[in-house]
Amino acid sequence: MHLAILSRNANLYSTRRLVEAAELQGHTVRVIDTLRCYMNVTTNKPSIHYRGEELEEFDAVIPRIGASVTFYGTAVLRQFEMMGVYTLNESVAITRSRDKLRSLQLLSRKGIGLPITGFAHSPDDIPDLIRMVGGAPLVIKLLEGTQGIGVVLAETEKAAESVIQAFMGLKANIMVQQYIQEAGGADIRCFVIGDKIVAAMKRQAEPGEFRSNLHRGGSAELIKITPQERATATRAAKAMGLNVCGVDLLRSNQGPVVMEVNSSPGLEGIEAATGKDIAGQIIEYITRNAAPNKNRTRGRG
Class for domain 2-91, per CATH? Predict the structure, then answer.
């Protein structure tokens, strides 16, 4: 098979591992800088050009689209879909998962466990918004934030009001969430390929920190998840319509709750913590499933 990886940087760990795994399984692979693609949107023969040439045909595309280039990256991916190329994760599913509020609304509709989440526009509604999620302490999140950036823990209601007012004053879109104190600064990253959890790791925040992201200094270790956690993660991936994703869970007193579904999960942390060849399993999934004109948007929303 001839594969394309949409990635801004060929030297990133995840991109390098996917290239290695594809070549090891006998495929040819080309890394393409997403932002250097440009498109001919036409009725009869849509095409993609790259650095002055029309791209050759690919059997499948692996999107590694960063959050900062979601709009352009999904437009490029959509063009591949119009050309009949199989995409590992479809453009609509990626767009759906990148919108934090939309993704939670879709998960809620499927009855999947979530932290109580509030969203409002007017500063007049802040006191009731805080009460809605159970009061302080609570978590305030920028809808556009990634890797723990733009996430604030407000330990008192006065602090929460001040932070929310500040964000609203800057015209930033935020949501307010119940703080799951019993999680103890830890979350679980479940790595989903197809309809299976192929690996899971526990991420633990540094002392004095509540964000467990590895980019924020958190640590990771192998963990055995429960059947309920396994079912929650696979249902969340299906609700987003993603074939490959990372589902982040918290262990709450009411059972597992989903914090986020990541459409472009990193491989370095999960491979190091579990010792599994996740990149190889992704390529194997593509080998089994890729076919011309096979894309279809799964789920609704």
Answer: alpha beta
Cβ contact 8:70 at 8 Å? no
Instruction: Specify whether the CB–CB gap between 174 and 100 falls below 8 A.
Output: no
Q: Where are the domains of the chain?
A: 2-91, 98-113+182-279, 117-179
For residue 154, give the amino acid letter.
A
Looking at residue 243, what is its pLDDT?
Answer: 97
The C-alpha atoms of residue 289 and residue 132 are separated, in whole angstroms, by 44
CA 80 to chain centre: 21
Please state whether the predicted TM-score (pTM) of the whole model is above 0.90. Answer: no
Query: Cis omega (within 30 of 0) on the bond before 137?
Result: yes
Query: Which tens digit of pLDDT belongs to each residue from 242-288?
Result: 999 999 999 999 999 999 999 999 999 999 999 999 999 999 999 99
Which CATH number fits the domain 117-179, given the four candidates 3.30.70.3190, 3.30.1490.20, 3.30.70.2750, 3.40.640.10? 3.30.1490.20
Residue found by looking up tokens 């809605």 in the block:
132
- Residue 205 has a pLDDT of 76
